[in-house]
Design brief:
Chains A, B: It is an enzyme of class 2 (transferase). Chains A, B: Keywords: Kinase, Transferase. The structure is a homodimer of 300-residue chains. The first copy, chain A, has a nine-stranded mixed β-sheet with strand order 5-4-1-8-9-10-11-12-13, sandwiched between helices. The first copy, chain A, has a four-stranded mixed β-sheet with strand order 3-2-6-7. The first copy, chain A, has twelve helices and 13 strands. With 300 residues, the first copy, chain A, is of the alpha/beta class. The two termini of chain A are 35 Å apart. Chain A has a single domain, classed as Ribokinase (UDP-N-acetylmuramoyl-L-alanine:D-glutamate ligase), CATH 3.40.1190. At the A-B interface, helix 8, strand 13 and helix 10 of A face helix 8, strand 13 and helix 10 of B.
């Protein structure tokens, strides 16, 4: 089933202890789309400025992503993020954020997108996420991401959103901030009480935790010796997870856990090169082979 | 098969954001013994001072631990450690260390202990670990722990030790220090090249990594909502792991992975109360039940 993702489309500048890249393709909706397209058709909704290289749009199209929901604002500039990774390659500092077109991002979904059964609300303001949700006609599964900035500045809107979505995906720091609780297990349970049917806490190199009314579990990250650039790992995780779910007819606890595992495996590819380069080089069978290795790793 | 552990026996003072305990039973050899005794007979080798409460020796004896190798030095004081946990309950600061009797700890193993087939060299100086090793008559399996202090102050001795043991167990920070490498996967592989047949990197609340010539994997910690005191988790992990291995006739990769899982599960009990209290309340069937839940958690 097709999957709609609404989120940022960016030009990233990334520094690691080993190398740096300027103005490379990035953004939550881009990483998500390129991860999810291994599993299902993806419709990206986002906004860019006049400075957006046409080759990036072509790259997304050539990868099978529907970019009819990507709008270009004349006279405006694309969202830009600049960050630097610490030597552990897990922690990072944001050096600069230029919101540019993202500041006014308030998408009107094309008719076809509104009837989509799977919706992922990637990075963006909670108000925008709520307005997107209102445009959709009863999706089967709605999952949202959020960030520290929105937890701090739009707490009321976030409370409302949490009661209207099926799942929330956020990182460990954001979970402790939202739940006001340092223990991640208690934090996850507290967020669950705020409304969603499931919560996923992403722990970077330490994997991800899943919470629902009936179960809670932790899965480790797939171990990767060659971490080149962790940017987009979390969005790729969500893309792999939602992409797999969009292939299923129901969402059993087993399906959700397998979806988590696929998300973890896809993210492990993303970090093996800068930007989306690694995601462009792999095929579905590479993902399935690594999923088998991952399953074997966890069997005793 | 009986298992000999040589290491610290301590009186710990622990502060957490919630509570504090003064002079409670602790030490690497104590946690190790009380974890391993669920699986096999354990012979503890350690030293204490005149201030050592006799009830602690009785507690160890009542728990089935052979304490014939525990010596009391007249006129001396027991090793003491004081630490405080940060609100995340994973990181801690050491507030005070009184080495006392541990400063001169140079055990002479009883004859029966020297023929032991399983040996664990817990926290203590590398020189002492080497001298213990020389007293043993061809153990089947020797595993050692080490700490940042010994990595910094006895690097040559540690190089020698690493060529004489089967396995090394250390935490993530110590691994990056020893390997001079921030990526834990590369760090583990580098340590493997220093001599041991396998290396285990303990990641606290994030689980543990295993490295051998033929495989590398990560297992997550068993998720625990009620972390009361993480002290001794690493030593309990080693106790559960070695205890299980001492029950086996060979050490296949499958046995080693199951041993890792047992170590993780035993450690998850240890953190549920101060000192060794939780370990004293559980039985082997509690461990096996949690191992089943852990296996189920990792199956998809």
């Amino acid at each position: 089933m097709p999957l709609v993702v609404v989120g940022s489309v960016a030009l990233d500048s990334v520094e690691t202890p080993e190398a740096k890249r300027e103005n490379v393709l990035g953004g939550s909706a881009v990483y998500f789309s390129l991860a999810a397209r291994f599993f299902t058709r993806v419709r990206l909704v986002g906004v860019v400025g006049e400075d957006w290289p046409a080759e990036h749009t072509k790259l997304l199209e050539d990868s099978g992503v529907d970019v009819s929901g990507l709008s270009v604002v004349p006279g405006a500039k694309t969202f830009r993020w600049r960050g630097r990774y610490l030597p552990n390659m897990n922690d990072r500092e944001t050096l600069e954020v230029q919101l540019n077109v993202m500041e006014q991002f308030d998408p009107v979904l094309p008719e076809e997108h509104r009837r989509c059964r799977f919706l992922f609300l990637a990075n963006g303001s909670t108000r925008m996420q709520l307005r997107v949700l209102e445009q959709c006609v009863g999706p089967n599964l709605t999952v949202a991401d959020t960030m520290d900035h929105w937890i701090r500045t739009e707490p009321q809107e976030l409370r409302t959103l949490l009661q209207r979505i099926d799942g929330l995906v956020l990182n460990d720091f954001e979970a402790t901030l939202l739940a006001e609780e340092q223990n991640l297990i208690r934090a996850g349970r507290k967020i669950l009480e705020m409304g969603p049917n499931f919560v996923v806490i992403k722990k970077g190199e330490h994997g991800a935790m899943f919470f629902s009314r009936h179960e809670m579990y932790v899965l480790p990250a797939y171990p990767t010796a060659d971490v080149i650039d962790p940017t987009g790992a979390g969005d790729s995780f969500a893309g792999g997870m939602m992409g797999y779910l969009a292939e299923q007819t129901e969402f059993s606890p087993e399906d959700l856990k397998t979806a988590m595992a696929y998300g973890i495996v896809v993210a492990s590819f993303t970090v093996e090169d800068f930007s989306v380069y690694r995601l462009l080089k792999i095929r579905r069978q590479d993902i399935d082979a690594r999923l088998d290795a991952y399953r074997k790793m966890l069997t005793f």
